[in-house]
Amino acid sequence: MTTKLWSVLARRGQVLVLLALVITASCFQHGFLSRFNLSAIAFQYSLIGFIALGQFLVMLTAGIDLSQGAIIGATSMVAAFVIPSLGVEGGVGVALLAGAAVGACNGLLAAFTKVPPFVATLGMMGIVRGIALTVTNSRPIPVHSVAYLQLARARIWNTPAVFPLLLVSAFCLWAFLSKWPLGRYMFGVGAHEANARLSGLPVTRVKLTAYTLSGLLSGLVGALIASRLGTGHPLSGTNYELESIAAAVIGGASLFGGIGRVSGIIAGVFILGVINSMINLSGASPYLHGTLKGGVILAAVALTQLRPSAWLRRRAVSQRIA
Amino acid sequence: MDTPAVGNRRTLNADQTDLVRVLGMLAVIVALAAVASSGLLLAPRNLTNILQQNAVLLVVALGQFLIVLTGGIDLSIGAAVAFSSVVFIGFLDDGLVVAVLAGIGSGLLVGLTNGILVTYARLPSFVTTLGTMEIVYSLAKLTTGGGTIQGGFHGAPVPSSVSNLYSMLLLGIPYPVLVVLAIALLASLYLRSSFGHFVYAVGSNVRAAYLAGIRVATVRIAAYAIASAIAAVGGILAASQIGYGDPQAGAWLPMDSIAAVSIGGASLTGGRGTLGSSLVGVLIIAILNNAMNLYGVPPTLQPAIKGLIIILAVLFYSKRATA
Predict the structure, then answer these.
(1) Smallest Cβ distance to A126: which of B146, B258, B307?
(2) CATH says A29-307 is which class?
(3) Residue B222 near chain A (CB below 8 Å)
(4) DSSP, res A280
(5) Chain B residues touching A295 at Cβ < 8 A
(6) Is B2 touching A (CB cutoff 8 A)?
(7) Minimum mean pLDDT among A31-35, B261-265, B303-307: which range?
(8) What are phi and psi of A155, to 5 degrees?
(9) Domain extents for chain A?
(10) Are A106 and A65 in contact (CB under 8 A)?
(11) CB–CB of B135 and A290 under 8 A?
(12) Which residue in B39, B25, B10 sits closest to B260, CA to CA?
């Protein structure tokens, strides 16, 4: 019975931690349940959620994508640039395509060269950011289309529309990872690449897919940020990749590949979101925010790294020996 | 893996090959940059300038190299620089020696925290140091109350010996360069000791190292502590360069130092690379930065060129037999 409970805890740990946090915050944090606050969390962390899903895919293949923030900056600018000529759909479409194109470059580097993903995407971050800054002369591009500005402000069932969109994307990703052969191969490639190659898994295709999807999702966030802020700024999205990596690791993904589940990632994202909101509402000195946030990241990751089942097994063995 | 020598012919081992390659890259970059800047790059004044301006990065890269050798990554290294620069300036009330010790001690503390978390809590180094980066930056800001710190906690001004140190020469060599050389010497002595060899062992195969009786935990924690202490020296250099402590300094240091170490041929999976090659890796980045400024490349375009060079340089290694 206890073992079963522990195994449920181990598999659904993130979701339970999120629930506990939400309950704690609702009880003790004045203003947490206000509509304004909840909408703010739902919007801001849905954006992080999209790139965390992309980061999760890349991490499944034992890679890492440091270029996400740069892609967000560049695509927010691309979207703002093409809206006057191509309209709202065109803006989103081109941003998605541009993001996917950069992601595909990352994928090509990861699949066909031995450059470690960390270095490849770090270099790509510089390239994308540099080109975006140079093309715009480091000036933001304003968005005037009212229809486009409405995009990020749209609401469904009284929540920001990006939140249900994130849930739908997460569901699609879950279906892809658990039902589609290519999705299943992601776990195999990440768990042991040489074995996967010898077993005939399409390693190249898996990596290309993971990085391209990560780029595509970053492009989506870029388009949404352009709509939300009303400008395309080449520097928007700075350090978002660190946030998405933290969320994915808190959500149970392993930086060494092959481990993680979509529900955990989404929970990990909103664990960060709820905690961030609690820190903001607590009225602590802004200089203290980093300490609180860093401490929480460490604690959350430490919690998810605990393997209660392994601990129980070890205890059982030691008791038998004693 | 060393290639066994065939007959009498001497062959270079992998580390020597890496050094030759990275020196080759340096030569190419220097040649291109010298031509592009019509010789300005090679003016002696400019060469000392490059070294002086990149002393902090050179120091930090030495620390990062140690961490990369263990198979980890240290994102908190820039925060350690900021924190130690603040602590160093703050403790100037109690004299220079105390201030330097306090600065290095603050770095040591950051490194010990990282090492203990990575080793005993078994957290991946990337997220651990991401977390400690946030914490240490915030501690630095709490210490100064948000802004920069211009003198000791009790109001002692920054003595002129500190602010002049950065540009002072000893035997024609600027002080910061001497500091870099001293730390490089100490670090290479450390890596040549038996304890230092264990760092390579732990980085290439933890389990084998453990089974061989190496105290993996001690080796790892020591590596993290030493790396951050080295970074703290970089923080003291940074403080003497600008004359005050900046709690937001060094945001770009982790990524630049990782890039430099990778260009130097160190493997991010650990256990492979040499200190000399890593330093040459930093020089490549430093000369690239300097040459782009001399050539008048707009600062906005510079990250793009740097990114491209980083990818190309590391691509260059991927052809070697053992990846």
Answers:
(1) B307
(2) mainly alpha
(3) no
(4) H
(5) 131, 135
(6) no
(7) A31-35
(8) -125, 140
(9) 29-307
(10) yes
(11) yes
(12) B25
What pLDDT shows up at residue B7?
47
Contact B301 A130 (CB under 8 A): yes
Structure tokens at A244: 């998405």
**Chain B, 261-320: which have a CB under 8 Å from a chain A CB?**
262, 267-269, 298, 300-308, 310-311, 314-315, 317-318
pLDDT tens figures, B248-281: 888 889 988 998 998 888 888 888 888 888 888 8
- Report residue B109's pLDDT band, with 50, 70 and 90 as the boundaries: very high
- Whole-prediction pTM value? 0.85
HEC string of chain B equals: CCCCCCCCCCCCCHHHHHHHHHHHHHHHHHHHHHHHCCCHHHCHHHHHHHHHHCHHHHHHHHHHHHHHHCCCCCCCHHHHHHHHHHHHHHHHHHCHHHHHHHHHHHHHHHHHHHHHHHHHCCCCHHHHHHHHHHHHHHHHHHHHCCCCECECCCCCECCHHHHHHCCCEECCEEHHHHHHHHHHHHHHHHHHCHHHHHHHHHHHCHHHHHHCCCCHHHHHHHHHHHHHHHHHHHHHHHHHHHCCECCCCCCCHHHHHHHHHHHCCCCCCCCCCCHHHHHHHHHHHHHHHHHHHHHCCCCCCHHHHHHHHHHHHHHHHCCCCCC
Phi, psi of B321 (to 5 degrees): -60, -50
Domain boundaries, chain B: 45-250
Q: Yes or no: say if A232 and A79 are a contact pair by the CB < 8 Å rule.
A: yes
* Chain B hits for A305, Cβ within 8 Å: 121-123
B121/A305 Cβ within 8 A: yes
Q: Report the pLDDT value the prediction gives residue A1, as an integer from 0 to 100.
A: 54
* Tens digit of each residue's pLDDT (9 = 90 or more) over B69-105: 998 899 999 999 999 999 998 888 888 888 899 999 9
Q: Do the chains contact at A287 and B146, CB–CB below 8 Å?
A: yes
Angle between helices B55-69 and B216-242 (to 10 degrees): 170
**A119 contacts B258? CB cut-off 8 A:** yes
Q: Looking up tokens 């920001």, which residue turns up?
A: A160
Q: State yes or no: pLDDT of B135 exceeds 90.
A: yes
List Cβ<8 Å contacts ≥24 apart for B9-17. Answer: B14/B272, B14/B320, B14/B321, B14/B322, B15/B273, B15/B274, B15/B277, B17/B320
Q: Give mean pLDDT, residues A128-139.
A: 86
- Reading the block at residue A17, the tokens are 């931690």
